[in-house]
Design a protein that fits this description.
heterodimer; A: 354 residues; alpha+beta; Enolase-like, domain 1; 5-stranded antiparallel beta sheet; 12 strands; 26% helix; 18% strand; B: 165 residues; 2 domains; 5-stranded mixed beta sheet; 5 strands; globular; binds flavin-adenine dinucleotide; binds iron/sulfur cluster; binds FE2/S2 (inorganic) cluster
Chain lengths: 354, 165
């Protein structure tokens, strides 16, 4: 690991100024950054530890019914906050389906949103990678692409964004609060991550010095609480990244879908909102046919890269299943196996899984 | 640049000079403080062998920068027994064959103590297995580990009731 200088500011203004210096990275829980530094994939000369910044560790309920999640709120604390889990159950389920209990205890909300891709060629310093070393080529193209994109990719980079948390957040119109050299601004989460295009090394719209201070969910997002699920297919039941995932949420009135929210994970370099599918669902009666039509629409523009064409059909099926589960109603408690297709319905909760 | 950080480790207050900010909590414990019970498996957050409690919460010490933990209370496997009396989780691991080679065991036990403290898994083996998924065991002692946690938890609840009465 490259040696680095360490700074621990105690005001946001100092963090912004310190973070704006060249070759600097912010340190949250460190569970992604340190891993990358150990592999010499990230080589910052300075670390600015944001974990002592005041006022960023609380879940704040806003007057209008929305919520403001401080950037330093740990993933486990957010998922287990009873009021939060009650209002935004698919977000809690997504968090609990990610990483392990130990990692969730350390990982911060902002760090989760800004975690880097898990593309194995990006992680392997011996492979070429346009994201890590711009202009060298993409080692994944022609290689193993199970965890790679089927939407929004370019010939320069086919990586995916690995966060589970981001998927229901983007479906529910989350907004990211940023403090930077030009002051405070809000960016919709949907606009935070960039698609690769010609510049896969530019991952987000953040500028040097920009600190994420909070993530907000609007009051309307809580209207989906009764019918909101997250579903995630992975290579093993727990402690694995998504091959494909979906966050689905419905507002129902007397059996009819008033409005729908749908986003996909594991398919693109950003959490992928499926707005056309949402529009199709609005006004419909829930059912297999309309769910299948919505799924087809969500993947209409999908293209395989290499041998990952199976992900397109898998994503369609995960969407149908997530919508079906959402229509059936949010369970009172997050299932024993969060977001798992192997989780039994609450009425079947006997231990069949050995 | 050197940083002095204050840590309470297994009840002992210590001021530790960190001469290189790259040092992880795991390396600090093992290489500088002679607390080698905490194991290094992957060193990348993937196996759980390095699990310790920081401020009563289980974390992977291999992905925690020591300098960032200034002021924290750390509990390692060396700090859970009372003299010669094993912690109920330690005793239950032995009674239920929750180990074979033992390499993952300190991490498993610290993680189990954290899990029981969180109090969310109840006595559902499926929730216990899910809650312990961050701890890998190459010897595959999983069945015994789950049994051990169920038993230890039940015993700790009884003892707790006994104390309250
Ligand atoms: C073995 C393993 C399995 C995992 N499995 C999953 C999984 O299944 N699903 C999943 O979603 N995730 C998974 N993760 C990833 C995990 O969720 C992330 O590592 C974690 O959320 C990152 O949070 P952190 O606070 O530790 O971030 P850090 O590592 O501290 O930071 C991550 C990035 O965010 C930047 N940053 C942090 N805070 C701020 C801020 N306030 N403002 C601006 N920039 C900031 C840092 O500079 C860095 O670039 C896994 C990780 C590991 C090691
Ligand atoms: S897919 Fe992107 S991150 Fe992976 S090797 Fe290619 S350029 Fe790098
Ligand atoms: S050594 Fe820390 S998780 Fe493997
Ligand atoms: S007992 Fe050998 S690795 Fe678990």
């Amino acid at each position: 690991m490259r040696p680095f200088a360490y700074d621990r500011p105690t005001t946001i203004a100092d963090a912004v100024a310190s973070g704006a210096q060249p070759e600097t990275a912010f340190l949250g829980g460190g569970t992604n950054l340190l891993d990358l530094m150990k592999g010499n994939i990230s080589r910052p000369a300075r670390l600015v530890d944001v974990t002592r910044l005041p006022g960023l560790s609380t879940i704040e309920w806003l007057q209008d019914g929305g919520v403001r999640i401080g950037a330093l709120v740990r993933n486990s604390d957010l998922a287990h906050d009873p009021r939060f889990a009650n209002r935004f159950p698919s977000v809690a389920e997504a968090l609990l389906s990610g990483a392990s209990a130990q990692l969730r205890n350390a990982a911060t909300a902002a760090g989760n949103v800004l975690q880097r891709t898990r593309c194995q060629y990006f992680y392997d310093a011996a492979s070429v990678c346009n994201k890590r070393d711009p202009g060298t080529g993409c080692g994944a193209i022609g290689g193993l692409t199970r965890l790679h994109a089927v939407l929004g990719w370019s010939e320069h980079c086919i990586a995916t964004h690995p966060s589970d948390f981001c998927v229901p957040l983007v479906a529910l119109d989350a907004v990211v609060e940023i403090e930077g050299r030009a002051g405070r601004r809000d960016v919709p989460l949907e606009a935070l991550h960039r698609l690769p295009g010609n510049t896969p090394e530019r991952e987000t719209v953040l500028e040097p010095g920009d600190v994420i201070t909070a993530i907000r969910l609007p009051a309307e997002a809580a209207a989906y609480a009764g019918n909101a699920r997250y579903l995630k297919v992975r290579e093993r039941t727990s402690y694995a990244f998504a091959v494909v995932s979906a966050g689905a949420a419905l507002r129902l009135d007397q059996g009819t879908i008033v409005s729908a929210r749908l986003a996909l994970g594991g398919v693109a370099l950003k959490p992928w909102r499926a707005r056309a599918a949402e529009d199709l669902l609005a006004g419909a009666l829930p059912g297999a046919t309309v769910f299948r039509d919505a799924a087809a629409l969500a993947l209409a523009e999908a293209r395989p890269c290499g041998d990952n064409g199976f992900k397109i059909e898998l994503a369609r099926r995960i969407i149908v299943r997530a919508l079906t589960l959402a229509a059936a109603g949010t369970p009172d408690r997050v299932p024993a196996l969060p977001a798992s297709p192997f989780a039994l319905a609450p009425t079947q909760e006997v231990s069949a899984h050995v | 640049m050197s940083f002095d950080i204050a840590l309470t480790i297994n009840g002992l207050h210590r001021v530790v000079a960190i001469d290189d900010p790259r040092i992880t909590l795991l390396d600090l414990l093992r290489e500088r403080l002679d607390l080698t019970g905490t194991k290094k498996g992957c060193d990348r957050g993937q196996c759980g062998a390095c699990t310790v409690l920081v401020d009563d919460r289980r974390v992977n010490s291999c992905l925690a920068l020591a300098v960032s933990l200034d002021g924290a209370v750390v509990t390692t496997i060396e700090g859970v027994a009372h003299g010669d009396t094993l912690h109920p989780v330690q005793a239950a691991f032995i009674e239920n064959d929750g180990l074979q080679c033992g390499f993952c065991t300190p991490g498993q036990i610290m993680s189990a103590i954290g899990l029981i403290r969180e109090g969310l898994a109840g006595d559902d083996p499926e929730r216990i297995r899910e809650g312990m998924s961050g701890n890998l065991c190459r010897c595959g002692a999983y069945a015994g580990i789950t049994e051990a946690i169920l038993e230890a938890q039940a015993r700790m609840q009884l003892e707790h009731k006994g104390e309250a009465a």
